[in-house]
Each structure stands twice: as C-alpha cells, then as structure tokens.
Amino acid sequence: MTITLAIETSCDETSCAILKGGREVLSNIISSQIEIHKKFGGVVPEVASRKHIETINLIIQQALDEAGLGFKDIDLIGVTQGPGLVGALLVGLSSAKAIAYALDKPLVGVNHIEGHVCANYIEHKNLEPPFTCLIVSGGHTYLVQANSYTNYELIGRTRDDAAGEAFDKIARALGLSYPGGPIVDKLAKTGDKFAIDFPRVYLEPNSYDFSFSGLKTAVLNYLNQMSQKGKEIIVEDVAASFQQAVIEVLVEKTIRLAKERNSDKIALAGGVAANEGLRNLIQKRGKEENIEIFYPSTVLCTDNAAMIGSAAYFNYIDGKVSDYHLNVEPNLELR
Ligand code: KG4
Ligand code: ZN
User: Fold this and answer.
1) How far is CA 334 from the centre of its chain?
2) In which domain, by residue range, is 15 found?
C-alpha cells in the first residue's frame, strides 16, 4: 500500500501527515498559529510565512516519528499547491519538492479545496463518489457535484464573502475573538434563532450561488440601531439568528442540487462543516428527503495535511503527478 507524506501550509496551520493508501491516517500533526494571529484579528500573511519556516521541519519529523516511519518508507509526496497565501504556500511546496527530489519519489500538487472534500474519505471508509458536496471554509464557499475521486463539477459559489469569513466578521462586530466561527456556533446554542429576522439571500430563483454581504450589513445595521437606541444586545440571540440565516440557505441549496442530480449522498467539507447548527439542520433535511449525510470530524474539517494526503493519493492513482516545475497558485480554481 502506498505510503504518502503530505504537507499543508496554505494559511495559518503548519501540518504534515502520513497516510497509508487514501483513507488510513498514520499521523496528522497540526501546528496552529491562531494564538499569534489573534491579536491582529486575522491572519497576517508575512507572519504566517515566517512561522511556517520555523516550524515545518519539526512538524515533518514529528509526523514520521508518530507514524513510526522514516523517509525511506515514503512512496509519494503530496503538497497543497493552492489556493492560499502565496508566501505560506511556498514554504510547504519548497519542502515537499526537496523531499521528493532527495528521495526520488513522485510529487503531487493538491488543490486545497479538493483536500477538504477528501477529508470525508478518511472519516467514512465506505464513501464513494458520486455525491453532492458543500465546501464551506474561511476562504471559499462552493457547491459541487463530485463525479469521481478527482473530478468536480463546480455548480455554485459565493459572489462575495465566504461563509467562514461571514462568521468571522460577525464575531468581530460582536467583540468576539478570532476565528469567530466556533465561538458564534457555541453562543448560538443558548440563543433564540428566530429572535431577529435577518435576510435569507437566495439570489435568482434557480441560482446555486451564495451571497453573504447583505446579511453581514443587516447584522451590522441591527447592532448599530440597538446601540443608538441604548437597547441591550443579546449576543446569543444575534449569533443564533445570524447562524440560522446562513445555514438555512446553505442547506436548502445543497438539498435542491442533490435532488436535481438524483444524488442520494451529500458531504459537507471545510471549517464551517464543523458548525453544529449546520450539521443538525442538514441531517434533519437529509432524513426528510432520504439523502444520506456525511461530514468529517472537527479536526478533519479545519485545515490539516491528512486531507491533502488523501487527495494526493487519489490523484496519483489517476496518473495526475506533478513535476519539479510545480509552482504555487494562490488563486487555484477547483476543476
Ligand atoms: O477550512 P478552514 O480551516 O480554513 C480555510 O481553508 O479557510 O476554515 C476556517 C474557517 C474560519 O472562518 C472559521 O471561523 C470557520 O472555518 N469555522 C467555523 C466553525 N469552526 C471553524 N464556522 C462556524 N462554526 C464552526 N464551528
Ligand atoms: Zn481550508
């Protein structure tokens, strides 16, 4: 069975994983920089790159140690090529190239978004394409039909903010810390999700695209009006009502696409797939429509190298191998 060493450095996590085949994780080391970026209220690209450089070699060694393997055991090297921060991506890509060259083993550049989808293959050993997939992260919101392990049909996307970005911006407006998604999720549990009637933005009747900037403005206006009137803001209610407005649209469009494609499976992917409100609502709707719902455990939802290793393996099996001219692509599209 192919042993893959995978590296992920597209944003603020330095991660290295070792996989056996496409689904079995031998180690998955994730070093988060969140504490460093927190004081700036978001990720500072230059700081992220420097931190990746400081950490990457230690993380790679730790991943090998935890897997009980050495470099000589590695058959394949996978690395995130994009999308992401250019300087951050370069650290992982340079390391991966160096290892591939030194070991004389194949190198596969991976699309980070495809990696998020593949986290589902690690979590659910029997999951096979085709299925409908909602990818919701800090940087991206995609609705896709996964036709095979390496072929994705892009059906819908956000026209402005990504879903995770909307969570982070609302959290910031509420005075919560970064990243806001998990905090809003937690507060929403004790709030009333129907307390404030924020807009559900469906766009044109047949559209599978998303838009979150109008909702963001509506929440900011609500907060301003409340403070101007000297009224108390119930943070839990704002969090719950905002979250409900986001997830209703995400879920309804995903269910509609699955039904249109006669898909009996839906997978969630990306950091926002960790959201409990989203998971619960799509499970409920899936049951009603006889569609089976899949999502990765929280650690595999947010950025990690194991998902990159899985995607690298499936691309390798498909003959999609990179050469040493492989370069980072900060705006890489899903194709
Ligand atoms: O996939 P990810 O780790 O990084 C990107 O590729 O962007 O996603 C990070 C995003 C952040 O915006 C974070 O706030 C959001 O995922 N997130 C959540 C939750 N956990 C992480 N959003 C809502 N609810 C959560 N539980
Ligand atoms: Zn990500």
Assistant:
1) 13
2) 3-117+301-317
Which residue in 53, 61, 100, 49 sits closest to 79, CA to CA? Answer: 100
* CATH at 49: 3.30.420.40
* Alpha-carbon gap, residue 182 to 258, rounded angstroms: 27
Residue 330, domain member (yes or no): no
Residues 134 and 48 in one domain: no
Mark whether 26 and 105 lie in a shared domain: yes
C-alpha 160/C-alpha 140 separation (Å) is: 10
Same domain flag for 16 and 153: no
What does the angle CA 130 – CA 132 – CA 138 come to, to the nearest 5 degrees?
A: 130
Take atom 16 of ligand 1 and give the residue whose Cα is closest: 271
* Cα 113 to averaged position of ligand 2 atoms, centre (Å): 7
In angstroms, the CA 332 to CA 335 distance is 9
Number of domains present in the structure of the chain = 2
pLDDT in tens, 42-62: 888 988 899 999 999 999 999
- State which of 242, 272, 298, 299 you would mutate to test the pocket of ligand 1, scoring each by most atoms of that ligand within 8 A of its C-beta: 272
Residues 252 and 313 reside in one and the same domain: no
Q: Given pLDDT bands bounded at 50, 70 and 90, which one contains residue 298?
A: very high
262 plus 151 within the same structural domain: yes
Does residue 329 fall inside a structural domain?
Answer: no
Give me the helix-helix angle, 305-317 and 112-123, nearest 10°. 90
pTM summary value: 0.96
* 211 C-beta neighbours (distance < 10 Å), count: 18
Within a domain: residue 137?
Answer: yes
Tell me if 124 is assigned to some domain.
Answer: no
Which atom from ligand 1 is nearest to the alpha carbon of 165? 12
* Burial (0-12, 13-18, 19+ Cβ within 10 Å), 312: buried
pLDDT digits (tens, 9 = 90+) for 266-290: 999 999 999 999 999 999 999 999 9
pLDDT of residue 160: 97
